[in-house]
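pasting input
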Amino acid sequence: MKAPILGEFTERDRQPHKLGALQRLEMPMSRFAENEEVDYLIVGVGAGGGVLLQRLARAGFRVLGLEAGPFWDTERDWVSDEAGSHQLYWEDLRITGGDNPLALGSNNCGKGVGGSTVHWAAFTPRFHPSDFRVYSQDGVGADWPFGYDELKPYYELMELELPVSGPAYFPWGDPHGYAFGPHPMNGVGNVLIRGCTRLGIPVSAGGPVGILQGSRADRPHCIYRGFCIQGCKVGAKASTLITHVPDAIAHGAEIRPHSMVSRINLGKGRRVSGVTYFDRDGREHFQKAKAVVVSGYSIETPRLLLNSACPGFETGLANSSDTVGRYLMAQAGNVVMGYFDELVRMYKAPPAIALSEEFYETDPKRGFARGFAIQTVGPLPIAFAKQMMSAQGAWGWGLRRVMMDFNHWAPLGLLGEILPHVDNRVELADETDRYGIPVAKVTFGLHDNDKMLIEFGKNKVIEVMEAAGAKEVVQEARYAHLVGAARMGSDPATSVVDKYGRSHDIANLFICDGSVMPTQGSANPGLTIQALAARAADYLISQGTTVFNSNKRAMECPPVRRNLSPDATWGHGSPRLK
Amino acid sequence: MSDDYNHPYDPHTKKPIGPLRQPGYYPDFSTLAQQKFWDAKTREVILDRVHNIPPIRFFTPAETTLIEVICDHIIPQDDRDAAHRIPIVPWIDKRLYENRHDGYRFADMPPDPEAFRLGFQGIEQIARHLHDCSFVTLQSLEQDKILKSLHDGKPAAGDEVWKRMPVHRFWMMLVQDCVEAYYAHPWAWDEIGFGGPAYPRAYIRLENGSPEPWESNERRYQWKAPDTAVSDLREPIPSPIEHPAPHRKRGLV
């Protein structure tokens, strides 16, 4: 076939705002007046902010999301191209240092509606029950202020709302099944399965991943094009941009894109009154709100709180505990690459396609606390060349040569739990951004347990790769994901927010994103961030208007609301829950 | 680097390989030939990259000459014919001119534009120290060896420069910039057999490394790097920062 049967795929005149190949966004959305006070103002519309916005809108609150980046039209804005996708990542300046400086930007930070869910690989395993009591069980890290059972109903909801494709029986943590079937294997998935099977290690094939394996409503199934990290033009991969934001807008929420919040304003009686932000033309605005939710993720959330220092909160808003910015975590994300005589063609199908959590829990025999997962990854040519540069020192003709073998390599990723440390933190740098706001300075370093875990985990992945038949194995040390830096806890002296995300210091200020996590397990954080947001929403809804006019702090567990899911999600599929 | 002396060669016949329109093991494969199957925006972005090479605005003429020579070593293209070499320097220049970066700067690094100029000074100082002449006037082998000393983290001179900027970070930035330009080009995708954009058409043959109906099978050939180069080695980059030593098992060849 020389050309598509129906002609080239040209954009026909002015299309409506598209989210994926089929979904259309109803515009215009409602717009609050400049001086109008909203109920909830959410700073950042990503994994946490997107889900919270949707639920609060459905419950009838007047909600506004201020998003620093654009409101994507996936057909007009996104491309199947690595170098052309930089606008998806948070590429404003940050300073990164410490003994093991973290790569930021495309590695872990999104900008624009949907946040990092736009460019996540969408692995969506749950945390294990043990993750919620790491300190009591292993004597390291911290306990969460609630247990797995409180989050479980929200995992179940999110697994249907994204939805998550995966096996009928997932054996690790709290064993469960997935309502939507697993994806077919690609070459890299087969390498993981082959290696693990030879070593007697169980594998979960075809998920859990937030990518549609069959079409549902106005979202098509995956076409296995492999550009998950560059934004899914198909609309098969879940991002809050396509899963929750349209429903939020249909229920009266407003999202104001290109709105960079510079500070949260403190009003009377130790309560916040709204936020100051810059619009796309650099004009400064003040937006009034009865309550403010910060959903800027683990760098921007602490940065905003620190930048909002004011009389009464000299070291940063909601920072009486001196915990804002501390206990920042990334996961060990070492990539092990194996060369095979036969072709693999790793660029086909989602990078996130198979995993093993066999080594997730603490095993005293290993000599360190906590564990790791092994997952498939799928770097495209530029990312792979950079990995080979690090792993092999490839450059010049050596680089050209290894790249000519691109289709012979298969990469597997370690996902290892790094514990929370007080000195891994976000502070403010001397430099400022284009609005004059001080940028974040990130300090990160590994401690002994982390180093032992990484060494063991890396060698285990190498063992799997060799068992799969790789002729040569190389590895690159790197880090994946971010969580922490504004952690939740029961004790206001050692945490920033309570178990529902409400700041200990200020009764109408909340945090709803990955920064509230006290520990991170070795599961990708995206699903848990969204489950926490759904839980926070149920709490806020259960409080009615109390949050807006009282400093009373109810701590009872709210009822689970199953009627807040976007249309055509809850009740569809047949969940095989244990 | 245009004379035959710098060509990779066939180890059996000792004949130079190139100049070729398309090096690599997929001689019949062309991603650009598939452009009618791409979505409009992707086609627009990729064709713009192929046809509209940005002008030099950041580097001075002398710096441009120097960075051209450096890039010819980091991504040598002597096996490509003149009409099918992939521009690298204009893209680095564009990034520095627009002051774009990946969203972070290492605490021990100056801003990228400054880092490049510092690095140039360092390279010149090594050339003067070792050979008493400018880097660009050196023989290809000497140039390659100086760059390898940066790669190895053992520059022979320029201590003042490398005190202000860790040599391995400068080297990583340099190679990354070259990689981002070269492997963003559809000709490089053809070279390595990467299928490229596949929306809205999809990939359908996921297993066993099978080609799509529009992809091609691999046709390997043996080649050796030119004798004027020392870069066809695979040694780990020593790094004072990252703790794990890169793991190697067996050689590939």
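fyi Residues 19 and 82 of chain B are 8 Å apart (CA to CA).
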